[in-house]
Backbone:
């Protein structure tokens, strides 16, 4: 518990330093108002669309879904990895085959996704 | 209760020392990078502010701190400020779990050269590294301008590409050390460094660090020839300054440290520098690692964003899975 | 002779009643009525024995006293005859048929004619202004438009200086400048938003190499539609040319393609010399050839550096500038000025080669190949470089003809179109060199072609230096000719030279009446000068056929369906220079 407590303190300290930098900047920086100062940067020409917060169709939606799936699998692999070394001396075959069965299924899924073209941008 | 407050104050002081130290270090990492780039490009780099430009980082910091703080109209103000904090704080949070050496006894006190040693240290580092990227994505959305928008979305694509490969590549060293604690991982490398069976995992992690810190060939989020300055186009003054500080220096530095811990035995090395030799070894390895990233950055052209995700999924992920197999067999044979 | 004559197309001549051949010595041309123009062009384009497939240029000349007032002039190139053809037609009612159905390359040239002369083109897909903004009312290249412009806009603020009273010659009216609203109207007219957002790459964008304004209609990162707005660097060079003498115009050619100034100088001066029947001295010709090739290396080095910089390879930029600096120093030593040297004069060059110049160049020739290898080591086989370049922006051979692409862009697509071979000027017929050709026509081929061109240029420089070492004592300028300005020494020594100098400087070179079209092989393609002389000291009309202008035209076509990241690759590999596209 002590370790996490330090982490929280460190987090607070880091946030304070970050906020302090922004605040100091805001306090000591000069203010020279200009009519076009708050115009969004558009390389010196008028805006074509007034806002940029619209739908922008990036073609990696399927990749995003795959990321969620695979990251979950990674979470299953981690605990296995921690105990692997101790278990290997007890029953090497079991712990090896067990995880590689799991990974083989994972790899089949991966190959399926690859073949379906989910790994490239549509 | 009193004890708790005292401990808090002690840890707080230590934290601030770490953060300020990291700041100074990051400032001088900019100097190192600029000198390095200068000599790569056959020019001297910073030369005029101080001896060989040694005061240049201070001048830069003052300049960034005293620049006008411009907030364009139409931005999401809360997110706009939050984004630069969100890039900076998690990046520096990784530092909390990085051990720079073993505890040393000084004047009767035990001084630990790390903030905390957790048994989930590596996972925390991984998590903070990913959260740091959200700063970039938020900055892109909050700016309400087209170049940041595209830049932020590109960074999200890079994140999607490398997150999985990074996770699987870290499995190898964990298997060998049997713990997530970074200190434990270093201690497990008294004999052979983990680079030996984990060479594939190391390659994947190199690429992943380049991608996560946004260095060439993966700097698509701020490709200046395409997106002007990418996600930070609308940023100015200190809230701009935090981005390169967090991404290029702090994140590169701490992730290099983690790579050194995972594969190059951390502070392990022959005791030829007396009592400080663990620190010397650690920083020597760290500097080599950092220089390697600089070298790549100043040499290669950049990939297109769809090529990056393809590389990540089609090359890096299979490599990292293969790495697990190699390490599993290695442990079965050599124990 | 490079020009098509009556005999060459005699077998189709009977079909067109109004076809007339005028056999000028310098520029023989055909004249045809407007209603027969399109069938005639279609015939000579598609006839297998003629194949005038390649579009070179289209322009308009203004004759205010003639009825109809405007004359359109077309230049085409035949692949079989290896000859050009010049066709003229009068624009009845200020209208001409559009050629865009036959050659896509005519699109911008016609827009330019509409912008500058106000001629309507029937059948043009989107006839909008080329250089000026949409709400501009005048047509600047018409003869009744004064060179200082029409001062019709109330802009008192332009005269205000902080802290001082307005001066007595306070002018409240100025020539029009575009406002934000004008620019918005212009951009809305160029492109209709169909996809998700329209991304601007305005003149302040770091990736555009100057002041081009791109509009990308984006769906995600995919470009669905693209258009280019030119004119941010438009200085009306063609208008200026009508108002200065032939010699005075030389510095303006520097400032068109400022990266390869000497090549532009040489192309212009060669055209004027041919018009005036001036023959430069042997030595001058060799110096010109040598400097042109040095300038070509210089220009390609800048291209390589910025191209790699755009793709993220930051270091190679400084490596190329290191070599470029050496060439700049050589040019400075010879011409006195680094960038816009204006070194070429009618009849020769301004100054003789200084002592030791050839030694320096010799040293450079020895040194440069190793450096070139260094660049190739970094890039040519680099996996990232290959991934970004191979297969991007493939230009078919047909498109080269269709769009009138020239220079390295055409040669990378396998079209051996090089003015140095087709119509050698100076000493290009006496030096030995090869034309590198690409096979696929993608960005990577264009990169390879330009790299090889640097080697070939170096080879030419080597031959020139060998020749020049034998010509040490020759004259560098043919001052005997009545059209050639005397050197400074001669002006001070003899009164005749002084009078000649005075006359030429004040009244200009009284060129004989006639026309000329002559082009040079610039690093960015064919730079052609079409000069009409009415026997005065100033040209009546000068049309500049810019290679970069035509090369850039294919960009919107190539980028469609590709991502925004490929735009920098394409733009870099097409290598336009805005000074030349805008003129």
Residues:
């Amino acid at each position: 518990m002590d370790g996490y407590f330090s982490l929280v303190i460190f987090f607070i300290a880091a946030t304070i330093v970050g906020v302090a930098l922004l605040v100091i900047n805001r306090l000591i920086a000069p203010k020279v108002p200009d009519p076009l100062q708050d115009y969004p940067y558009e390389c010196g020409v008028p805006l074509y669309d007034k806002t940029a917060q619209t739908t922008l169709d990036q073609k990696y939606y399927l990749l995003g879904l795959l990321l969620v799936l695979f990251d979950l699998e990674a979470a299953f692999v981690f605990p296995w990895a921690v105990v692997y070394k101790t278990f290997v001396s007890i029953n090497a075959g079991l712990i090896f085959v067990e995880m590689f069965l799991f990974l083989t299924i994972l790899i089949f899924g991966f190959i399926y996704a690859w073949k379906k073209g989910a790994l490239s941008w549509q | 209760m009193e004890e708790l407050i005292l401990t808090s104050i002690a840890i707080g002081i230590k934290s601030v020392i770490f953060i300020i130290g990291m700041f100074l270090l990051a400032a001088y990492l900019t100097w190192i990078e600029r000198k390095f780039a200068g000599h790569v490009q056959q020019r001297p780099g910073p030369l005029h502010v101080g001896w060989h430009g040694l005061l240049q980082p201070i001048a830069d910091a003052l300049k960034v701190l005293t620049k006008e703080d411009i907030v364009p109209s139409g931005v999401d103000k809360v997110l706009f400020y939050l984004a630069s904090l969100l890039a900076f704080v998690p990046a520096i949070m990784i530092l909390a779990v990085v051990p720079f050496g073993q505890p040393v006894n000084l004047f009767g006190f035990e001084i630990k050269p790390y903030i905390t040693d957790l048994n989930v240290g590596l996972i925390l580092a991984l998590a903070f590294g990913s959260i740091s990227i959200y700063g970039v994505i938020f900055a892109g959305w909050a700016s309400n301008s087209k170049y940041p928008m595209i830049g932020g979305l590109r960074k999200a694509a890079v994140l999607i590409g490398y997150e999985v490969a990074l996770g699987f590549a870290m499995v190898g060293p964990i298997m060998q050390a049997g713990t997530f604690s970074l200190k434990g991982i270093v201690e497990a490398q008294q004999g052979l460094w983990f680079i030996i069976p984990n060479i594939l995992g190391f390659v994947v992690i190199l690429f992943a660090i380049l991608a996560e810190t946004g260095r060439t060939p993966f700097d698509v989020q701020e490709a200046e020839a395409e997106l002007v300055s990418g996600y930070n186009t609308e940023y100015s003054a200190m809230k701009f300054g935090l981005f390169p500080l967090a991404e290029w220096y702090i994140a590169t530095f701490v992730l290099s440290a983690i790579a050194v811990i995972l594969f190059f035995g951390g502070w392990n090395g022959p005791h030829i520098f007396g009592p400080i030799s663990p620190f010397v070894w650690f920083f020597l390895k760290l500097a080599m690692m950092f220089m390697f990233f600089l070298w790549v950055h100043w040499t290669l052209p950049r990939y297109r964003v769809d090529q990056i995700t393809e590389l990540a999924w089609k090359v890096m992920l299979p490599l990292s899975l293969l790495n697990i197999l190699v390490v599993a067999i290695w442990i079965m044979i050599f124990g | 002779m490079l020009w098509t004559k009556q005999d060459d197309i005699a077998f189709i001549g009977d079909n067109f009643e109004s076809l007339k051949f005028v056999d000028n010595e310098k520029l023989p041309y055909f004249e045809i009525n407007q209603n027969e123009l399109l069938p005639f062009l279609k015939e000579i384009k598609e006839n297998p024995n003629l194949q005038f497939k390649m579009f070179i240029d289209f322009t308009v000349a203004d004759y205010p006293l003639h009825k109809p007032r405007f004359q359109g002039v077309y230049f085409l190139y035949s692949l079989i005859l290896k000859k050009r053809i010049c066709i003229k037609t009068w624009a009845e009612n200020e209208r001409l048929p559009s050629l865009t159905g036959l050659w896509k390359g005519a699109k911008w040239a016609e827009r330019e004619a509409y912008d500058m002369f106000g001629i309507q083109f029937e059948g043009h897909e989107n006839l909008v202004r080329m250089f000026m903004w949409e709400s501009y009312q005048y047509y600047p290249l018409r003869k009744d438009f004064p060179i200082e412009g029409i001062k019709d806009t109330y802009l008192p603020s332009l005269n205000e200086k902080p802290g001082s009273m307005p001066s007595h010659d306070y002018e409240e009216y100025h020539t029009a400048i575009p406002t934000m609203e004008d620019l918005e109207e212009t951009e809305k007219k160029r492109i209709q938003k169909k996809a998700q957002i329209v991304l601007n790459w305005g003149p302040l964008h770091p990736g555009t190499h100057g002041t081009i304004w791109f509009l990308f209609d984006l769906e995600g990162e995919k470009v669905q539609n693209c258009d280019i707005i030119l004119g941010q660097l438009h200085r009306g060079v063609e208008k200026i040319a009508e108002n200065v003498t032939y010699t005075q115009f030389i510095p303006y050619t520097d400032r068109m393609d400022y990266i390869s100034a000497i090549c532009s100088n040489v192309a212009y001066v060669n055209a004027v010399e041919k018009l005036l029947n001036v023959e430069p001295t042997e030595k001058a010709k060799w110096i010109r050839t040598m400097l042109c090739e040095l300038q070509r290396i210089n220009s390609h080095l800048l291209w390589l550096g910025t191209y790699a910089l755009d793709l993220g390879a930051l270091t190679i930029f400084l490596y190329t500038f290191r070599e470029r600096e050496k060439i700049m120093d050589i040019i400075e030593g010879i011409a006195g000025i680094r960038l816009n040297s204006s070194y070429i004069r009618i009849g020769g060059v301004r100054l003789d080669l200084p002592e030791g110049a050839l030694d320096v160049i010799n040293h450079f020739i020895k040194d440069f190949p190793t450096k070139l290898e260094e660049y190739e080591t970094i890039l040519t086989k680099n996996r990232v470089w290959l991934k970004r370049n191979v297969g991007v922006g493939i230009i078919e051979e047909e498109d080269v003809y269709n769009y009138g692409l020239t220079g390295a862009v055409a040669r990378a697509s396998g079209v051996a179109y090089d003015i140095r071979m087709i119509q050698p000027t100076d000493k290009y017929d006496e030096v030995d060199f090869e034309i590198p050709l690409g096979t696929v026509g993608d960005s990577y081929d264009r990169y390879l072609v330009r790299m090889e061109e640097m080697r070939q240029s170096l080879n030419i420089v080597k031959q020139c230096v060998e020749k020049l070492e034998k010509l040490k004592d020759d004259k560098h300028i043919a001052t005997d000719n009545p059209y050639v300005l005397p050197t400074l020494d001669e002006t001070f020594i003899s009164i005749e030279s002084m009078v000649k100098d005075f006359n030429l400087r004040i009244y200009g070179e009284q060129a004989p009446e006639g026309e000329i079209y002559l082009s040079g092989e610039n690093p960015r393609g064919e730079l052609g000068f079409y000069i009409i002389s009415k026997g005065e000291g100033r040209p009546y009309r000068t049309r500049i056929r810019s290679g970069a202008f035509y090369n850039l035209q294919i960009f919107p076509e190539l980028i469609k369906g590709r991502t925004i990241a490929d735009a920098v690759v394409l733009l870099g590999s097409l290598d336009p220079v805005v000074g030349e596209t805008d003129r």
In short: Chain B touches chain A through 85 residues (CB under 8 Å). Strands of chain B lie at 104-106, 109-111. Residues 71-98+118-334 of chain B form one domain.
